[in-house]
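Quick one: co-fold with adenosine-5'-diphosphate.
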Amino acid sequence: MASLYSRLTALDGKGYGAYKSLVGRYDLGRMTLAIDRVQSDPYAPPSKMHVELPNPAPDFHPVPVCDQVARAVARAFRGHRDISIDSPGQEVLPTASCVDRNGTLHIRFFVQLPARGRRILGRAAAHLICDDLPDALEDAFEGFDPTAAVQLYNQQERMRAALGENVAFIADGAILPRATGTSSLPLTGAVPFRSPESLRTNIAGVTGMGIPRGVTVIVGGGFHGKSTLLNALSLGVYNHTLADGREYAVTNPTAVHVRAEDGRAVAGVDISEFISSLPTGADTTHFTTANASGSTSQAASVMEALEACAEVLLIDEDTSATNFMIRDARMKKLVTAEPITPLVDRVRALWRDHGVSTVIVAGGSSAFIDVADTVIAMEDYEPRDATAAAKELAEPVEEQAPFVLPKPRIVAALKTQHGKRKKQPQAKDAGTIRHGKENVDISAVEQVVSRSQTAGIARALGWVEDHVDGRTPLTQLAEDATAATSALIHGDDHPGALVMPRPLEVAFALSRHRGLKV
Ligand code: ADP
Ligand code: MG
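Sure, here it is.
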């Protein structure tokens, strides 16, 4: 510590590049500090450093322990302008901010090395790294006890594993709405969730509403909490942190939230289950476009979810293409050249033939009632079991034609134009990946929770670019690429801000890449 202090003060007044000499490892007593990468100038992204120390809770599941460490360090760094860590959001996921490597925690963070103009401020740097940083880390571990967080994490895992005949479960007392449209914190003063008697079940010791497999329709008036419920289901594939309100809202881990997304690129997707022909004469069994419409984009996204073996589809009318969802009798008479078989005429076959469940929010049209196994009515944020009432209103429907699942697409190429130097894809924001000269728009991939998770997906795309061999299915590449992101997160190098994605989201990002050839 003393030698690092004097080395830093000795750099005072030197050109900024002299900071580079600091790269290396330093023994700080209770922990080791590693300076991994030094920024090239004061305006570049901050320098990367990490500390290593023994895991104080080595017998616990490392994911919630590391998550708690990252949160504690983020709290301790708050107020320090020049030291930062990528802080977890409401979901508890493997994060590069903290990992356990053989019983040693690696806590990775960022430091803005101080300068005046382009000259090193050595004394300020010494103070920052040798006083402020160890003090903050000391604070973070003061009274550190991850027990409650670990128990909660394990409980959520148990519940998801115990879903059985349910696609999802929401506990009585859960708080589903968020504080604002842009915040993922719980809304204060919200109406707690309460299961209707008929759907109440007990999962791993918790009581609440089970949503059975099959076709479920959520109905209700506008502003009564339908989309809020669906969004909770969609993020129920992840574990949530303490006091989130959705801790015990768990969903089948393969569930995919699908929406319309006009303008998206589609590469070689068989959408013929929904769309038999197009005015361009394009082959809908191998649909390729740089600019999909509302209905074709949603058909493609459903087929891609099925290709990736999703067992549950989550669909909200608010974000769907109406002509993809339903078609009424009069419109059938008026528009005879309609090539679309809407979702309402396919969902039963999907369940009957392949056991794929669908949960649909449909407040505006009664068509889905005819094909539903379960109908949940949201009224003043309270669910009511409307299945019996809906059955009385339901009209008989014809047996649906068999549903043919898509064949796996083989990736032929991921063509990316690079500038002079090939660069790893990066997250521009939570919804955009910059890959070479291409922007991959994943803003409609609903279950991506943060920019750092998008960064995790971005690194996976980089791996795919390097490993396309012309004979591997897209979903297999996505899985291998996700494992590569995991290896980066758990590796020796400071990988920057990264959070683990599901292989599904990697597959969906790949599917939207305009350089994808299948
Ligand atoms: P819908 O999809 O039925 O139109 P939303 O789910 O969008 O309704 O919810 C409408 C509003 O009600 C949102 O502002 C949401 O945050 C709020 N809200 C949802 N559930 C609750 C609840 N349990 N308690 C209080 N407010 C809620
Ligand atoms: Mg809504």
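If it helps, The mean pLDDT is 96.
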